[in-house]
Amino acid sequence: MINILFAAKPERWPTYEAPLRAALKAANIEAQLAQDIAPDQVDYIVYAPNSDLQDFMPYTRAKAVLNLWAGVEQITGNETLKIPLARMVDPGLTKGMVEWVTGHVMRYHLGMDAHIVNPSHEWKIKTPPLAQEREVVIFGLGALGTACAKVLLGLGFRVTGWSRSAKDVAGVTCLHGDEGFGEALRRAEIAVTLLPDTPATTDIFNAKTLGQMPHGSFLINPGRGPLIDDDALIAALDSGRIAHATLDVFRTEPLPKEHPFWAHPQVTVTPHIAAETRASTASEVIVENIKRGEQGAPFINLVDRTLGY
Ligand code: NAP
Questions:
Q1: Cα(192) to centroid of ligand 1, in Å?
Q2: CATH assignment of 2-90+277-295?
Q3: Do 2-90+277-295 and 92-269 come out as alike in CATH topology?
Q4: Fewer C-beta within 10 Å: the chain N or C terminus?
Q5: Is the distance from CB of 191 to CB of 213 less than 8 angstroms?
Q6: How far is the CA of 130 from the centre of ligand 1 (A)?
């Protein structure tokens, strides 16, 4: 019998309890799963970074922290955490992100706004280009970026991806590192940012780099708020360099009511809803890692804390 602590906000427990128990049963793992277990008895910690648990030192026999979120920037710097940290790569979350990104790319590509809001009742005819005439660049070609790239490719877009290390995704122009960044920016008629928040990615979209994007391009950020220098983006919107931005994530969340993004006519704010971890599929991923821990096999989705993701 192993002990699994569920360390997330109490309101998440009703969502996760049954799927986690079902996944444990399906894997034939006998476990006590609870929100409160004596720290020195805990074998695995199912974790959300906004939980009250911030000091991992008393969890002397725990084998791993299994994060419920894809993003780990709130936990990578925790010096009390000495055991392996796995992040969430959840098929349900990935599907949600693909749908959100595709929807917002299609909004820009088809110029939908002109017809959704048309108070002058003008008969405006402007045929959009075909997807094959439009270049979408995905900044961050990881679990989420690659899934989005493949679906956009399937719709016919010209797709470029940019990552830290070299990648090979069939049909996608793969660029990487500092040397590939300028070209990725220059190609980005529609930019989708799916990078993690790390010291290397903070303010990566700033006055200089936004200025390298094509005039009148679109920016979609479901990654993390600190990727973008807010003031530089507002200046780029005002100059027309960026025609419109859809932002799902922000430096401060909820986005403060007085933040200029709310009122800017070329910004759509969505309240960090691009993709949520889905309890049923995520529970299977968590239990797969517990199974691996019990078998002495390597954990999946491990975070490299020196890189911060
Ligand atoms: P991932 O699999 O770790 O992929 C991250 C990608 O970013 C990888 O391609 C990585 O390059 C690249 N990257 C990291 N640092 C870089 C750098 N300095 N320069 C260039 N490329 C860099 O992460 P994921 O699962 O796709 O998730 C991406 C992010 O989405 C998460 O970190 C989270 O912040 C965000 N997210 C948002 C929501 C939402 O609802 N808005 C939901 C889930 C996740 P390599 O491939 O070379 O490692």
A1: 11
A2: 3.40.50.720
A3: yes
A4: N
A5: yes
A6: 28
Q: Which residues participate in catalysis according to the annotation?
A: 224, 272
> What's the 227 CA to ligand 1 centre distance in angstroms?
11
Best substitution site from 75, 151, 164 to test ligand 1's pocket, by max atoms within 8 Å of Cβ? 164
Name the token pair of 182: 């300028």
Alpha helices in 126-272 (DSSP H): 143-154, 177-187, 207-210, 230-239, 260-263
Q: Which of 105, 110, 113 is nearest to 220 (CA)?
A: 105
Euclidean distance between the first and the last CA atom of the chain, given in angstroms as a whole number: 32
pTM of model > 0.85: yes
Identify which of 101, 148, 193, 194 to mutate to test ligand 1's pocket (most ligand atoms within 8 A of the CB): 194
**pLDDT (average), residues 72-86:** 97
Whether 194 is in the pocket of ligand 1, judged by its Cβ within 6 Å, is yes
At 222-280, the pLDDT tens digits run 999 999 999 999 999 999 999 999 999 999 999 999 999 999 999 999 999 999 999 99
Output the DSSP codes for 224-267: -GGGB-HHHHHHHHHHTSEEEEEE---SSSSPPTT-HHHH-TTE
Please report, as a single letter, which amino acid is at residue 84: P
Ligand 1 in contact with 226 (CB < 6 A)? no
Q: pLDDT of 152-175, one tens digit each? A: 999 999 999 999 999 999 999 999
pLDDT of residue 272: 98
Pick one of 3.50.90.10, 3.40.50.720, 3.40.640.10, 3.30.70.260 as the CATH number of 92-269: 3.40.50.720
- Helix then strand then coil, in percent of the chain rounded to 5, is 35, 20, 45
